[in-house]
Amino acid sequence: MAKWGEGDPRWIVEQRADATNVNNWHWTERDASNWSTEKLKALLLTIKVENAEGICEVTEVSKLDGEASINNRKGKLIFFYEWNIKLTWTGTSLSEVKYKGYVEIPNLSDENDVDEIEISVSLAKDEPDTNLLALMRKEGAEKIRNALGTYISTLKTEFTQGMILPTVNGEQLEPALPPPSKAEQRNTTSTADTAALHSKSIGVKIPTCKINLKEVFLTSPEELYRVFITQEMVQAFTHAPAAIEADKGGKFQLLDGSVTGEFTDLVPEKQIAMKWRFKSWPVGHFATITLTFADKGGETEVHLEGKGIPANEEERTREGWRHYYFEGINQTFGYGAHLF
């Protein structure tokens, strides 16, 4: 038996207000089944596609069997979900003829990537042939797959709040922010010191630099563009709270406020331009970041151009984009990224 004060620190109850699951060592589990049921219904019942033939929309979630849960063991989150889903869809041709069909999704689970999920679209028995079936099998199935991807990403963000508890020192087991520099640590010693530093930064011209990065993702420009501007998906790949206003002039905060900025231009599937800054940069100073998406036939090449980056922050900014954006997206969504 260990002497008093010499036991394994992972089992020592620290002085916490709640006195539960100290250091995230013990296994905790949270049932996400009811939340998942409501989330899936909300996402799937918004599916609607149309073309020159008419309109198709999901009108009913007729079957939703399964379960979902999240486990925390030693500070690591383990996600489990398994669903068998059946939907009813209705098509309306330009001549106002109504059609009814079904969508079956038998293998929505943590064992399959989003692209591997089987989505079977059919017409109801005795319904006559219609070109709307092809519309639903292509555009409709794609929207359904995107909705399922959104469910998975929100499950890993919205429903995990509070499962990784801070230690007695208030530190997270997995750092959500880039490692602070020594200058940042000095800047946070007191409010007065920070205010003084900020006041000196205003109006001071600083040396800046330019960076360029390229990355290839195994997905379409449409899907990848959505990853960068959808709040739930951003929270999923950064593993931290975010706030996104996906409009021209819209503000954003990432990594729990460590990164802030504003969208200056949004061209769907083509380009995202933004004013962007680290929290530690001189007050009021923003870099200009432009992401350009190029369709490479089954792959998307992203070119990042960054201008106006403080010269002493060049490497940190470059590595921040590689790690927190590109690698984070690859690991979260499985797009098989390739760095140049």
Automatic annotation (TrEMBL):
<comment type="similarity">
    <text>Belongs to the AHA1 family.</text>
</comment>
<dbReference type="InterPro" id="IPR036338">
    <property type="entry name" value="Aha1"/>
</dbReference>
<keyword id="KW-0007">Acetylation</keyword>
<dbReference type="GO" id="GO:0005783">
    <property type="term" value="C:endoplasmic reticulum"/>
</dbReference>
<keyword id="KW-0832">Ubl conjugation</keyword>
<keyword id="KW-0597">Phosphoprotein</keyword>
<dbReference type="GO" id="GO:0001671">
    <property type="term" value="F:ATPase activator activity"/>
</dbReference>
<dbReference type="InterPro" id="IPR015310">
    <property type="entry name" value="AHSA1-like_N"/>
</dbReference>
<keyword id="KW-0256">Endoplasmic reticulum</keyword>
<dbReference type="InterPro" id="IPR023393">
    <property type="entry name" value="START-like_dom_sf"/>
</dbReference>
<feature type="region of interest" description="Disordered">
    <location>
        <begin position="172"/>
        <end position="194"/>
    </location>
</feature>
<dbReference type="GO" id="GO:0051879">
    <property type="term" value="F:Hsp90 protein binding"/>
</dbReference>
<comment type="function">
    <text>Acts as a co-chaperone of HSP90AA1. Activates the ATPase activity of HSP90AA1 leading to increase in its chaperone activity. Competes with the inhibitory co-chaperone FNIP1 for binding to HSP90AA1, thereby providing a reciprocal regulatory mechanism for chaperoning of client proteins. Competes with the inhibitory co-chaperone TSC1 for binding to HSP90AA1, thereby providing a reciprocal regulatory mechanism for chaperoning of client proteins.</text>
</comment>
<keyword id="KW-0963">Cytoplasm</keyword>
<feature type="domain" description="Activator of Hsp90 ATPase AHSA1-like N-terminal">
    <location>
        <begin position="29"/>
        <end position="161"/>
    </location>
</feature>
<dbReference type="GO" id="GO:0044183">
    <property type="term" value="F:protein folding chaperone"/>
</dbReference>
<keyword id="KW-0143">Chaperone</keyword>
<dbReference type="Pfam" id="PF09229">
    <property type="entry name" value="Aha1_N"/>
</dbReference>
<protein>
    <recommendedName>
        <fullName>Activator of 90 kDa heat shock protein ATPase homolog 1</fullName>
    </recommendedName>
</protein>
<dbReference type="GO" id="GO:0051087">
    <property type="term" value="F:protein-folding chaperone binding"/>
</dbReference>
<dbReference type="GO" id="GO:0005829">
    <property type="term" value="C:cytosol"/>
</dbReference>
<dbReference type="GO" id="GO:0036506">
    <property type="term" value="P:maintenance of unfolded protein"/>
</dbReference>
<dbReference type="InterPro" id="IPR013538">
    <property type="entry name" value="ASHA1/2-like_C"/>
</dbReference>
<keyword id="KW-0346">Stress response</keyword>
<dbReference type="Pfam" id="PF08327">
    <property type="entry name" value="AHSA1"/>
</dbReference>
<keyword id="KW-1017">Isopeptide bond</keyword>
